[in-house]
């Protein structure tokens, strides 16, 4: 356990400090990654922690400062870049080098041989260090840091400038070290690497703590998967992709950056339409720190931090826009979480304010659920369809597909100008509510704040209520939770892990598909051919005319 | 104890150590052979024997063996500062002092061994290279060794001083490098110091009414070189002819040449 409190370093008076009041914890059993650009203060932080530099602030390793530890090598393994590529004297052999350091640390020389095995250097142990590759140098340095069997590892840019296979090895090693109960604190510049390696990501920006997030939240809020497509017929493909609900932007001369549609689907789409592709590649782009996640967690030492969730206000903000039938483009973007609202990762519960604590698993589940589709929105879809669609026959068609029993009383007294809360961001069903639990299980307060505009006459009664519950349960079963996302099989899969998706506004199937998207890459139900029944959310006011209007609209965008 | 063992590994693990040791032995043997071939015929005098055994090369700052020991000491510290194995482990003063103590122990022992080895090799070389007219049975033959070698005028004291000189050279290299943190600068300073210290110490001793023992003068190559030059030069002031001028300008010309050559080889200043 490393507790870092208020690390501050100013190199020169009058200049901005290299590090300002950095406070976070690195816990045992977890890999904590300090993420930041060049000059963000990562290395300074590490050097301050082991007191290689003078500064302010305190770093406690299991309650003691580095200086107070009697044999620091036995407790903390440190891997700092030395400015030279070599791990040791180039004329020395690796085994002799490690044995020599074993003597310095005060462990038997046998330990050196064990570590050579562990770091896959046993085969070259009797060769001179000068003949090693950068990856071997780094592994040898790691072996030297591990000589004293430390329980804590501090690594500054351990994979900087290494080949992908070495990077992978380092990641696997650090993760297994953490799994065996060790504390790992590493720094990196690459957000993808941080997402792959870390359990917790601490983002530094110009010496200041920008965010301290669990990796799931980091992936969701800061990483943004894209597919890069290149080819000669990009304009046509862009139209098709936009029609499929992807977000397309120009990327370079003959390239597109597509988000919201995954790679295979783009490839299929291109093939089916006879579009030639030159490149089709996943990549991850970084997003700047958004405001709510930038709030540091309460460390217990710098006061308690609590935030107000912004979710509750969003429905009210959106409903007026809904009334204008032409303005869907603007409002539909918000529900799916692209702007700040989704990055909170937390639905507004009955209580307006709560402790901001993302350590618990439950917090992550809430977060994942918040991005999920809103079952109430789907359940209400027939009502909206009837409200907005001019042709009732077309609107009736999708209605039976909705799993919720359609309320019979709905059609009668719907005022045409009724503001329909098509999608709101609050989860109104508590997690444990069963499908048949009925309205009694819900917190009345939450419902009353959101619903009144939607159902002024109370005609819905209890009819549509079971619907959300059913969908919700199914959704949970189909979607992996955060705990599952943390399993090693998924750790490298940043690119595949779907982040919040911004569907194309106003697409009926985009509303449905994005609903099922956030957590389940496999269980995704958006087949290009047929739309899923659950998402047949003719919810959208324009659902009735989508087949005709789709092309014009995409062309205009 | 483990720290000492690790220092031994450091010294042993690097090829430079063995190159330095081998080079020192070969040079010593060559110098010893050269001195021995020029010994005067007759009974071998003790100062001559010491000079040939210690392979004293005049005007070198230190005996060759002491210089080699200085190189070993400088490398023992310089390598560690250049390639620190455990970057953050040197924080506490206690650890650093322990490491320095271990290094000086190891370097001292290595210097002692090297000096003893040099003496043995030189004795063999001298024994083989002695001209026929020189009678060395009293000093160099094992049965003919004097009963009390450490008595005044014996061969024992100068040879013990030679061993001490080698150890001192090693420690000087180590400690000076620990000040400047660079092996090359440490070696250069170690070589430059005797040229300053020996005349100064001799002058101070002279002022105090004492003098070096003669065998010390014989052993310290710089001092010996000074004496040698002083004896050889006739005291009459000669004119500034071409030879003298060349002798004076030669070092400066060499320095300029070396600087120019160094610049030709480099890519930046």
Name its key features:
heterodimer, A: 557 residues, Rossmann fold, Alpha-Beta Plaits, globular, disordered C terminus, B: 269 residues, mainly alpha, two-stranded parallel ribbon, 11 helices
Record the SSE blueprint.
The complex is a heterodimer of chains A (557) and B (269).
Chain A: E1 2-9, E2 19-26, E3 31-35, H1 42-49, E4 56-61, H2 72-75, E5 76-79, H3 94-105, H4 110-118, H5 134-145, E6 152-155, H6 164-179, E7 183-188, H7 191-197, E8 200-205, E9 208-214, H8 215-222, E10 223-230, H9 234-243, E11 247-250, E12 255-259, H10 263-272, E13 279-286, H11 291-294, E14 306-308, H12 313-323, H13 328-331, H14 340-343, E15 353-355, H15 361-371, H16 375-379, H17 381-388, H18 392-396, H19 444-450, H20 466-478, H21 482-485, H22 488-491, H23 508-516, H24 546-556
Parallel strand pairs in A: 3-7, 3-8, 5-6, 6-7
Antiparallel strand pairs in A: 1-2, 1-4, 8-9, 10-12, 10-13, 11-12, 14-15
Helix pairs in contact in A: 3-4, 9-24
Chain B: H1 2-13, H2 15-37, E1 42-43, H3 46-53, H4 64-82, H5 93-129, E2 134-135, H6 137-140, H7 156-180, H8 183-207, H9 214-219, H10 221-232, H11 242-265
Parallel strand pairs in B: 1-2
Q: So what's the CATH class of the largest domain in chain A?
A: Alpha Beta
Number of self-contained structural domains of chain A: 4
First-to-last CA distance of chain A: 52 Å
Lateral strand order in the biggest sheet of chain A: 5-6-7-3-8-9
Helix content estimate of chain A:
25-40%
CATH topology of the largest domain in chain A: Rossmann fold
The poorly predicted ranges of chain A are 292-300, 302-307, 312-361, 375-473, 480-557
- Supply the number of helical segments of chain B: 11
If you compute it from the alpha carbons, what radius of gyration of chain B comes out, rounded to the nearest whole angstrom? 21 Å
Q: Largest chain interface and its two residue counts?
A: A-B, 31 and 25 residues
Mean pLDDT of chain A: 67
Q: State the share of residues found in helices of chain B, binned by percent.
A: over 70%
Topology order of chain B in helix (H) and strand (E) letters: HHEHHHEHHHHHH
Tell me the distance between the termini of chain B: 45 Å
Count helical runs of chain A: 24
Which structural category fits the helices and strands of chain B?
mainly alpha
Number of strands of chain B: 2
Shape of chain B: globular
- Radius of gyration of chain A, Cα only, in angstroms? 27 Å
| Known CATH architecture of the largest domain in chain A | 3-Layer(aba) Sandwich
Protein name (chain A): ABC transporter domain-containing protein
Region (Disordered) (chain A): 290-356, 373-392, 398-557
Biased composition (Basic and acidic residues) (chain A): 310-335
Domain ABC transporter (chain A): 2-231
